[in-house]
Amino acid sequence: MTGETLFDAGERAAAERVAPLAVRMRPRTLDEVVGQQHLLGPTAPLRRLVEGDAPLSVILWGPPGTGKTTLAMLIAKTSSRRFRELSAVTAGVKDVRQVVDEAKRALGETGAQTVLFVDEVHRFSKTQQDALLPAVENRWVTLVAATTENPFFSIISPLLSRSLLLTLEPLTDDDIRTLVRRALDDPDRGLGGKVTLDPDAEDHLVRLAGGDARRSLTALEAAAGAADHVSLALLEQAVDKAAVRYDRDGDQHYDVISAFIKSIRGSDVDAAMHYFARMVEAGEDPRFIARRLVVSASEDIGMADPSSLQAAVAAAQALELIGMPEARINLAQAVVHLSLAPKSNAVLAAVDTALTDIRSGRTGTVPPYLRDSHYAGAKKIGHGSPGGYRYPHDFPGRVVAQQYAPDPVAGREYYSPSDLGVERVVGERLAGLREVLRGDRTVVPEDAASGFRPRCKPAPPTPEELRSIDKEQQ
Questions:
Q1: What is the pLDDT of residues 131-179, one digit of tens each?
Q2: By CB atoms within 10 Å of each CB, which of 57, 70, 144, 345 scores lowest?
Q3: Residue 370: inside a domain, yes or no?
Q4: What is the DSSP letter of 148?
Q5: Exposure string over 167-192, b if 16+ CB within 10 A, otherwise e
């Protein structure tokens, strides 16, 4: 800020002394910022924006505790611009217009530029975001907006197109550890070496953070308020959360994820949910869990329940859209879906068998009538004409006898569906298709041509079955 008096400085210093540890340890220069090096390197966009004093509006998108507010303040402080802050939770259109009017006056009277920081901008309505447009377009303010939600869904296109979108990454464990140790040692803003932290307590504090700097420092302050020596037990008591015996970088990491996938494969939904909760509580990267679910959906279930892949991908997309901790519910739903689904590894076996053939040299040339003929000279070199490509849509059932595979693997069957779930229906259709393709019959049997949906509706009970049911109920 500019024009700060000695009284103002004294008030600020007093406020900092009673402020939470996470606020006191907020970086004062770009060089103090931990993480986000893709934005803060020597030629990175944010550093050029700050040091170049350019009035360019930015949208900072990232998880909580990754430094969005800090970066906004540094943009204002480093460039000596006025700083104003609005929270989209409490501010209305009137508040937005008032700040914009003040910024216009300051720019016109003294030439002072204003940085307007809007936290949780995704909570602004379309009308509120529209109120910001003239100020951003005319550069009456330098807008720095922070959001934890995907801006392409939550911010109007005109505002997004007039701003530079910068994505902040979750802080790594090493980043969090650096911040914790800095807070322990800093004599002015931190704990000044008066508090010691046991190694296992530090490890647990890092796990608790989950990439959120504010969470780690808040937990540290809570524990430091109870004693000068912080053990794991004291830390657990202070934050009211038991430590999970789980090493994200060691054997436990691989053991737990292995047990998780094998529990899904074995259809034990309760064991799978236990291991899932264990990983979440230990601070495992939820994107890693989501990726394993997507793999499992095809590796262990495949066409036995094609909707499993849809459920896993939807959970992964929900995680990116809304983030943790809410997305734990979406991931848990996928865990239940995959655990209860019928199992088949036929898709995995099919692709791996095909790859084995390719790697052993069983390839061959593409049949001439299947080659691309949509360019000048194709027919002169025999593409698309000899043998005559038979267009399936011209034949009954949209299938016709024709060799598609190269000669070395003609007749080779890679996919062998199981008799469970949807694959039972797929198998019936596949058998008919292969018969037609080989020329053993001309049309796929009607009962096998109905598609991949299982026959969900059971036949109605017979009179004898109804009488039996009545007797049981009596």
A1: 888 888 888 888 888 888 888 878 888 888 888 888 888 888 899 999 9
A2: 345
A3: no
A4: S
A5: ebebbebebbbebbebbbeeeebbbe
